[in-house]
Amino acid sequence: MPKSLMDTTTLHNGVKMPWFGLGVFKVEEGSEVIESVKAAIKNGYRSIDTAAIYQNEEGVGQGIKESGVARDELFITTKVWNSEQGYDTTLQAFETSLSKLGLDYLDLYLIHWPGLDSSKFKDTWKAIEKLYKDGRVRAIGVSNFHVHQLQELIKDAEVKPMVNQVEFHPHLTQRELLAYCQSEGIQLEAWSPLKQGQLLSDPTINEIAEKYQKSTAQIILRWDLQNKVVTIPKSIKEHRIIENADVFDFELSAEDMERISGLNKDERVGPNPDEFNRGFEE
Asked: Which PANTHER family does the UniProt record give (predicted)?
């Protein structure tokens, strides 16, 4: 089990990815995102996750630059948006993201959503494989892919995705997907681990939090890690950024892990990837 913020999981190509990072979904471009990235890095975070559609890649890049931490100590992820999918457009989108971030290479590049047309994400994947083979990105993966979409992608892929970043929390435990990814050597990563804050008032988790003398958020984030799921909670407040990462000094019992998993309702805050096509048809 990870013992500190610096601890990493090893992806199937040997690249080390931190178990814990900062997500910046809906964090405003400009000073808000710059300050939250700097606060995270200052307090030991090494992984930052953004996306083209978040429209804050420049601020993330600025925060990285101002952090004073060497580039090779950081793990930076961004994602290609739906409207840019396809071979040539993906290569172009990558260059745009890289230049906004002010970086020479990426640590992880993801397809943001599968969309409803698998031939489209296969073309996108070919472009991402090229970037990987050219050494422009150290690891490649997908986001929001169900098992059947992963199987479809892998069928024609030269390089298997190293990561699948999905909505994952105690109301959406994704057991089948987690088991499949683990059997295929694909690292599962959780976005919206706190269900956008909706889980913070859950009585069961609150009761467990009291028992361990931890916050509800810390219990959920620890549950992620013990499920061997990389997690990237979002916060713009420094004290919360520090608190979220204070999850390495305790361990949930098997019984408490089960109690939390038992809260599953297969309930999402985001769209179901089988139905989500925004940005593809524009």
From this structure: 2,5-DIKETO-D-GLUCONIC ACID REDUCTASE, NADP-DEPENDENT OXIDOREDUCTASE DOMAIN-CONTAINING PROTEIN
Rounded Cα gap, residues 56 and 51, in angstroms: 8
**Does the reported pTM lie above 0.85?**
yes
| CA distances (Å), origin 130, targets 6, 90, 147, 159 | 30, 11, 24, 10
DSSP E strands: which ranges in the chain?
Answer: 8-10, 16-18, 22-23, 47-49, 75-80, 106-111, 137-143, 163-167, 187-191, 230-231
Active site residue 87: no
The predicted-structure confidence for 116-130, as pLDDT tens digits, reads as follows 999 999 999 999 999
Inside any domain, residue 207: yes
Residue 280 domain-assigned?
Answer: no
- How many domains, in total, are found in the chain? 1
Out of 54, 109, 132, 180, the active site residue is: 54
